[in-house]
Amino acid sequence: MNDTNNNIQNDTPLLQVEGLSQYFNRNTFRAVDNISFHISKGEVFGLVGESGCGKTTTGRSVINLYDITGGKIFFNGKLINEGLLDYERKIKEAKLSGNKEEEEKQKKLLREARARIKERKKQGKYVTDIQMIFQDPVSSLNPRMTVREIIAEGLYIQGIKDEQEISRKVSDVLARVGLLSEYADRYPHEFSGGQRQRIGIARAIIMNPKLIIADEPVSALDVSIKAQVINLLNQLRKDMGLTVLFIAHDLSVVKYFSDRIAVMYYGKIVECASSEELFEHPMHPYTKSLLSAIPLPDPAYEKQRTRIIYDPKSAHDYSKDRPEMHAITPGHSVYCNNAECEMYRQELGL
Length: 350
Description:
Low-confidence stretches: 1-10
Shape: globular
Strand content: 15-25%
Largest sheet: 8 strands, mixed
Oligomer: single chain
Number of helices: 13
Strand order of the largest sheet: 6-7-8-3-9-10-12-11
Number of strands: 12
Helix content: 40-55%
């Protein structure tokens, strides 16, 4: 199984995703299809692509809002989730071939995997170490709960009962995200979109997580508010030593905030590289198409800007030579076949 990224640090990745698949509608719709990546401690890993490419599904699968279809997810070196589809597929294949021994072996592995998943759900320890900031700052906050109740909910679940301690922590985290402590007794409808997103950020960081999954946290905000929220996240990252999976479709924002970027297309990661490398030397035609769509506040440039249209049928010939992730250079991987891999290396003069 190929990893889409190469390590930029020598330590064990905080998050390791191997062959993640997430299918819906009786496994007919492949929202995420066999992707692999890792995120090192303290890193911001950007996941970009157009709407519907599987970015949000990937984030929700990592935090276990979905029972994943296939693959494995490791957090801090420990297996926290795995899919069952591969075992079920192998059982069907063994039945069709009449291989009773292999069928029983896969059934046993399936039972063991289900038992591991059940046990991990009982423990639930890692859940506090992974928190999520949701895209919509309106629907992600319960309108019937006060800001204090929303932010402190995780503390109550953890078993903290000291109301003074909870109030102190809520006040501290509100100040950290740039809100007044007296806002704690108000309801979500009394705030603007940017303030609501700050409340969502406060709800996530009050648990002192190691990994934040930020699912398009600024896409619903005005331009000036976007900058404020991104700067806030950047400051929190430095102050708290956070690792961030940053999901977005705005490449200019991702470039500013991310250390590495993975580009998704129809459930597949098609390119992964450092932020600077991806923008300076894009390889995959879809990545070039995305970059060509970025507008700049320069009328002269905009008049001359040419959009690159990505058509997978005309851009690739995978009838004989099937694609997989290839490391074009250390730290820069592209989903391509052998012929395309050689072509990309020639483009770089390798």
